[in-house]
């Protein structure tokens, strides 16, 4: 599914964020990416959705090296990858329904299918009754639910979450994690960068720990392993 071989990433300022990464992630896995700030976690996940390209090495998704994709091919790659950010990144002038529907409109899905699918995912994240609300009328947890709905509406095979509970209170964070587990149970691969010791140690999944640009630990049902 996802295969990284000898991945290095050095930025223009000379900082090396990844220093020889080798890892394989299978379809349907749930993986936490943990480590200290500046360890390389964000670079790791940005590579997967081609926000950045490796300086050296091979990164394959479904047996295709995505670092070799032409820029015009990147949008097609991203149709199979949903991305969820800590700061939600919703379009403020669009309603909840419109924010989620937008992801299907850009791939020219039919209006009938858009309405059916949008209402399905809003029901999944518990926001079916708030489809006409605007982002500024929602709590932080609700906004994050909208961003999850938007990320999964076109049934991606991979969902990447970058600190998705970082701005949320503990109770809301657990609710969001239950949504992620349900998505994962449907067969979607989830890769989640997090600093939440409580979540990682309670909801046991595979843990990949990155320090100084290297994978220092890769454990099934692992612990967080750091003070937080």
Q: Can you characterise this structure?
A:
- This protein is of the alpha/beta class and about 230 residues long.
- The protein has a domain at about 90-155.
- The chain contains 7 helices and 10 strands.
- It has helices at about 40-50, 75-80, 95-105, 110-125, 140-150, 170-185, 195-200; strands spanning about 1-10, 15-25, 30-35, 55-60, 65, 80-85, 160, 190-195, 205-210, 215-220.
- A 6-stranded mixed beta sheet has the order 6-7-8-3-9-10, with helices on both faces. The chain has a 4-stranded antiparallel beta sheet with strand order 2-1-4-5, with helices on one face.
- A hairpin with a 5-residue loop joins strand 1 and strand 2.
- It is globular.
- The two termini are about 30 Å apart.
Mean pLDDT: 94
Order of helices and strands: EEEHEEHEHHHEHEHEE
Shape: globular
What oligomeric state do these chains adopt?
A: single chain
What's the N-to-C terminus distance? 31 Å
Q: Rg to the nearest angstrom?
A: 17 Å
Strand content: 25-35%
Structural class: alpha/beta
**Share in helix:** 25-40%
Task: Report the strand count.
Answer: 10
Strand order of the largest sheet: 6-7-8-3-9-10
Number of helices: 7
List keywords for this structure.
228 residues, alpha/beta, six-stranded mixed sheet, four-stranded antiparallel sheet, 10 strands
Fold blueprint:
Blueprint: E1 2-10, E2 16-25, E3 30-34, H1 41-48, E4 56-61, E5 64-65, H2 74-78, E6 81-85, H3 96-105, H4 111-124, H5 140-152, E7 158-162, H6 170-185, E8 189-193, H7 197-202, E9 206-211, E10 214-219
Parallel strand pairs: 3-8, 3-9, 6-7, 7-8
Antiparallel strand pairs: 1-2, 1-4, 4-5, 9-10
